[in-house]
Specification:
46% of the residues lie in helices and 15% in strands. It has 432 residues and is of the alpha/beta class. A 7-stranded parallel beta sheet has the order 3-2-1-4-5-6-7, with helices on both faces. The longest helix has 17 residues.
């Protein structure tokens, strides 16, 4: 009965979703493509296939990149596999194109109503569904269970905040988590929280994102550009709304000290690039955008104004980390939970994080214990700590080495996860 009310609500808001997608497509055209797929109507046909169709749902850019190592491992162990990729964001779908081989399929995540889920499953007929990290949708889980499609949650994480939210909606969340065929968690803490919601946790296999190798050419190019600069570079990585404003206000109050460092802001969401550029200029700073650099790197500009660099490109975080001496962790200076610091560590870039890291709490605490990251109370302290660290070459090298060791010591989740999924399929535990 409860899921019926939820389904009615999801059905009623479908027109609002369509309008939202069309508005968002003005800034990000990908959202305006294949909209009918979100409602279970597909132009592409699905041919017969000799091997299993493995459906992998990676909602956004970060999950899709992490899934790449899992896809590689699965192909090694299931060479006849046909991959079906679904996504919720335009950046995730664009990144997913890189993972497709001949015969593979790609579509938008089905909107979570019974009818749409039914059309999705009837059309693609997956032999196994794999959800990444947190993507548990009640009707999607119920539809897979009704049609006997095994559905597992991998690289699973659940923060304390998300657990409390799920508990408040326990009448909806608990049946969904309990109906999953199997769950493999990132950490013991995640496993415990997931089990408290009724999930069938089969093991703790680590975090796939540690297995993602940074783009070597990007990293080398960033390091090359850094070697040509006279000033150290501090990167505000994956900054969120409100954080850029706070940083610019701090730099304005300490303009003399701020000029000793080159500041680079890379917003989390690409639709905010232009707005952040306007924000920088409105505070009296000059702005130089990555999109104007080409392969030559940042240009020397004679300007009395303090210049802020804006990273307005997608898929180049390795370049930015290679260019930076230290990074401030976006999302951690407002109560937003923080972004993932694993890629920074893999690039050997020291991270200064604020008090709000509940989205990736275990990884943040592990990095802190390993000496790969520093925690501060607020953004003002972060600016001071990062600026000081840049001029302490001995300490900077120690933290860089610690970051690399931290990233390397947690690798191996992809092979472990592919192994247990294939083993479960082979032994019939996840039979249709």
């Amino acid at each position: 009965m409860i899921r019926w009310f939820y389904s009615c609500l999801m059905w009623l808001v479908q027109p609002l979703l369509k309008r939202k997608l069309m508005r968002r497509s003005v800034m990000e055209p990908g959202y305006g493509q294949y909209i009918d797929e979100r409602f279970g109507r597909y132009a592409q046909s699905v041919s017969a296939h000799a091997g299993p169709t493995v459906w992998l749902h990676t909602v956004s850019l970060g999950e899709t990149r992490a899934a790449a190592v899992l896809v590689t491992a699965l192909r090694q162990q299931l060479p006849q596999m046909r991959l079906l990729l679904t996504h919720g964001t335009a950046t995730g779908r664009a990144e997913g194109l890189k993972l497709l081989q001949t015969g593979d399929l790609q579509a938008w995540q089905p909107w979570d109503t019974p009818a749409v889920v039914q059309r999705f499953l009837n059309h693609f007929k997956p032999d196994l569904g794999i959800l990444m990290e947190t993507e548990v949708w009640p009707n999607l889980v119920h539809g897979c269970r009704r049609l006997c499609v095994p559905l597992v949650l991998v690289n699973a994480r659940l923060s304390e905040k998300s657990l409390r939210q799920a508990q408040r909606l326990g009448w909806l969340a608990r049946p969904a988590f309990a109906a999953l065929t199997a769950v493999w968690a990132q950490t013991p803490q995640d496993a415990q929280r997931l089990q408290s919601l009724g999930a069938k946790v089969q093991g703790v296999l680590g975090n796939l994102k540690f297995d993602v190798v940074p783009n070597a050419s990007q990293l080398a190019l960033g390091q090359q550009w850094r070697a040509q600069l006279s000033l150290p570079v501090v990167l505000f990585a994956s900054s969120r709304e409100g954080e850029e404003l706070a940083l610019l206000q701090l730099l304005g109050l300490a303009s003399r000290d701020a000029a000793k460092v080159q500041w680079l802001i890379v917003p989390r969401h690409p639709q905010r690039f232009d707005a952040v550029a306007v924000l920088i200029e409105s505070h009296g700073f000059a702005v130089q955008r990555r999109s104007a650099w080409g392969q030559g790197g940042p240009a020397a500009v004679a300007d009395e104004k303090l210049q802020i660099w804006l990273g307005d490109s997608l898929g180049e975080m390795a370049l930015y980390y290679g260019l930076a001496d230290a990074a401030l962790l976006g999302g951690s200076f407002e109560p937003l939970g923080g972004q993932n610091l694993i890629e920074a560590a893999a690039c050997g870039c020291p991270v200064v994080m604020g008090p709000h890291t509940f989205n990736f709490l275990e990884a943040a605490e592990q990095a802190l214990a390993a000496g790969a990251a520093l925690r501060v109370a607020d953004l003002a302290q972060a600016v001071a700590v990062a600026s000081t660290l840049c001029f302490d070459s001995h300490r900077l090298e120690i933290v860089r080495l610690a970051a690399n060791r931290f990233a390397q010591s947690h690798q191996g989740a992809a092979q472990r996860l592919a192994g247990v999924v294939v083993r479960e399929i082979s032994h019939g535990t996840l039979q249709k």
